[in-house]
Design brief:
alpha/beta, five-stranded mixed sheet, 26% helix, 5 strands, 4 helices, globular, Rossmann fold, single chain
Length: 174
């Protein structure tokens, strides 16, 4: 039986593209099939469409220990998630907070917190993680099969506008 090795042709070790990372990572998480839980992935999709230089967007249903590898080589990270417990800043409908690595019990569950992921990064990589923030967008409905609500979609629009400005800043906030 012959194995398919065509993928090897695309991994030239002399290439400048191998093991290069964009400086900023937008990492969204949520379930696109559960109403407003889709706000994180939708935010990443909207930010990706802006084609901002040096910004990479990743999306998954939930954070896992393996995502530590996605943080390597970054200058800063913006996690994006929907929340039923978000306390929106003013009328914007979203909240931004600076994260610190924290050990919590979420690394033993099916869904890690961003702070726990940062702690695992520090523990496994031997140096501090990149500076990170969490953008939470207030959601209202979480039913399987529902589309995001109109109110949450408007909060999403405002959150993406904020994120685009933050990501476009020339200097990295520490």
């Amino acid at each position: 039986m012959r194995r398919d090795t065509s993928w090897i042709e695309n991994t030239n070790s002399d290439s400048k593209e191998v093991n290069t990372f964009k400086r900023q990572l937008v990492f969204s998480f949520g379930n696109p099939s559960r109403g407003d839980d889709a706000l994180g992935p939708l935010a990443a999709q909207a930010i990706e469409a802006l084609s901002l230089p040096d910004v990479e967007c990743l999306t998954d249903f939930q954070l896992q220990i393996e995502h530590v590898l996605d943080l390597q080589g970054r200058d800063r990270v913006l996690f994006v998630d929907a929340s039923c417990r978000a306390e929106p800043d003013d009328a914007a409908g979203y909240r931004v907070e600076r994260l610190c690595p924290e050990r919590d019990d979420s690394y033993t569950t099916h869904a890690m917190s961003p702070s726990a992921l940062l702690r695992v990064f520090a523990d496994t990589q031997g140096h501090p993680p990149p500076p990170a923030w969490l953008l939470t967008i207030a959601g209202d409905s979480w039913e399987l099969g529902d589309a995001p609500t109109a109110a949450a979609s408007e909060r999403l629009r405002r959150a993406v506008d904020w994120a685009a400005g933050w990501l476009a800043q020339a200097e990295v906030q520490a």
